[in-house]
């Protein structure tokens, strides 16, 4: 009986201490209230004005672009958070599958990752499912 208990405790210890290689920290996206359309999160070297003071939090501009210094934006799985933000900073949570659709990432030149997702209703997403190459 004691051997089984020790084995069980060892397995639990192993499982709680392991982090999967493709697990990353969740990101928070702050989107201007009322914005609908594709959002592009892209890497740029230099000054940025779409980041906030918190790591892994990105402010999307009125054109649907967020800039990051992280060249590997999305290299793994995480549950990201999406919010509409009004002029006073009040956040309204957007629910994936209802107002957030089509999340994807891909490699760009130089190995930097660009991430895309769509903000809008399912009907809007179905009409505007094309990602612009701008």
TrEMBL record:
Residues 25-118 form the DUF6843 domain. It holds the Pfam family DUF6843. It comes from the Bacteria. This is DUF6843 domain-containing protein. The lineage of its organism: Bacteria, Bacillati, Bacillota, Bacilli, Bacillales.
């Amino acid at each position: 009986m004691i051997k089984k208990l020790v084995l069980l405790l060892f397995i639990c210890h192993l499982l709680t201490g392991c982090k999967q290689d493709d697990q990353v920290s969740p990101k928070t996206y702050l989107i201007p209230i009322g914005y609908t359309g594709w959002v592009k999160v892209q890497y740029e070297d230099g000054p940025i004005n779409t980041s906030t003071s918190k790591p892994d939090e990105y402010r999307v501009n009125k054109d649907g672009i967020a800039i990051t210094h992280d060249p590997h934006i999305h290299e793994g799985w995480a549950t990201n958070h999406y919010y509409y933000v009004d002029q006073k900073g009040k956040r309204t949570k957007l629910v994936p599958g209802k107002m957030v659709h089509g999340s994807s990432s891909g490699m760009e030149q130089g190995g930097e990752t660009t991430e895309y997702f769509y903000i809008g209703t399912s009907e809007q997403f179905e009409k505007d499912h094309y990602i612009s190459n701008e």
